[in-house]
Q: What sequence folds into this?
């Protein structure tokens, strides 16, 4: 009896995970049953974006600092995982200037994926430590400068990235359930971090760093840990995306993708894991719907000129409206939970039953 009661208590306390994960599994199952290539492509992309949004929420939502460099670490993870998973023959064609020591190396996909995430996290750990002392506008500008630096390195490091040219010859390992498993796993990780002492300390330093310092919170170390973990998640997302799209260039990891991921987090609300999931779902559905409308207008030649960027303009307007009228996003920083039973009402029911008897 005690075990059952304790289990119910744990499920109720962490009901957010069940509520968030269940509809995602249903979406994956329906997509699998439909067996439609386009739908599957959209859902896989949504789950990869979800990982990116969760990683951004982990640092930005708990730390209160906008991180533009997040997509840059996605690029690092993408290229790193591809280099270790590609066959030597594909490397000789797609990366003719690759360092000779890297050319014969080929390891299993999952190992290469984890290695790509670890390399992205390592780069973030090395670069970010002195930057974690910054706050407010200085931190935002610095993160944007870091994105520019990463982009320039990816564009001009021909030996690793093939420069600005498209890298091709990547094997497709990422399928629907691979993206679903990683997406659900990172929901659990992001929720655990938020509910852990690390997340609590990070939010304390966000709300008042001086008060947090007086109770022993080391703001720099806590921020650094969150930033590094966030970069690891971005690196994994980059590896999944690279092995799904199979050909890409450094421009895929720059401002356009940054805007989309930020829009997803801001729409849902950066203050909660629920906001990250809800924002990803809503923006993904709306974006694909707008793209369909845009394609229909262009195919039907309803306008005198070709309509381009309709989805991006609509998302920009929606982002402005949400920031004006609901800065906390749709969820307002709250997690979705099952309503807890009021102990007072239960006590009243017991008293009433006793009186009747």
A:
């Amino acid at each position: 009896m005690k075990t059952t009661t304790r289990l119910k208590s744990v499920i109720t306390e962490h009901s957010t995970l069940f509520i968030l994960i269940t509809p995602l599994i249903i979406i994956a199952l329906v997509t699998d049953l439909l067996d439609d290539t386009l739908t599957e492509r959209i859902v896989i992309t949504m789950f990869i974006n979800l990982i990116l949004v969760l990683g951004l929420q982990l640092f930005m939502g708990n730390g209160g600092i906008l991180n533009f460099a997040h997509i840059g670490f996605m690029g690092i993870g993408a290229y790193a995982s591809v280099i270790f998973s590609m066959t030597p023959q594909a490397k000789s064609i797609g990366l003719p200037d690759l360092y000779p020591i890297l050319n014969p190396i080929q390891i299993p996909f999952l190992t290469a994926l984890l290695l790509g995430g670890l390399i992205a996290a390592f780069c973030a750990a090395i670069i970010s430590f002195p930057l974690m002392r910054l706050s407010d506008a200085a931190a935002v500008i610095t993160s944007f400068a870091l994105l520019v630096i990463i982009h320039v390195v990816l564009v001009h490091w021909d030996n690793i990235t093939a420069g600005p040219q498209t890298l091709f010859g990547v094997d497709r390992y990422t399928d629907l359930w691979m993206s679903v498993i990683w997406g659900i796993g990172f929901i659990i990780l992001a929720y655990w971090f938020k509910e852990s002492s690390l997340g609590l300390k990070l939010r304390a330093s966000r709300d008042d760093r001086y008060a947090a310092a007086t109770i022993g919170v080391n703001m720099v170390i806590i921020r650094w840990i969150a930033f590094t973990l966030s970069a690891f998640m971005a690196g994994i997302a980059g590896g999944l995306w690279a092995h799904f799209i199979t050909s890409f260039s450094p421009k895929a990891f720059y401002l356009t993708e940054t805007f989309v991921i930020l829009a997803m987090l801001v729409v849902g609300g950066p203050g909660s894991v629920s906001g990250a999931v809800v924002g990803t779902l809503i923006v993904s559905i709306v974006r694909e719907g707008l793209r369909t409308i845009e394609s229909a207008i262009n195919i039907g030649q309803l306008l005198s000129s070709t309509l381009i960027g309709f989805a991006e303009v609509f998302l920009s307007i929606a982002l402005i409206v949400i920031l004006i009228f609901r800065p906390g996003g749709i969820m307002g920083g709250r997690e979705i939970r099952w309503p807890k039973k009021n102990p007072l009402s239960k006590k009243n029911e017991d008293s009433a039953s006793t009186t009747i008897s």
User: Anything to note?
Assistant: The chain has a mean pLDDT of 89.
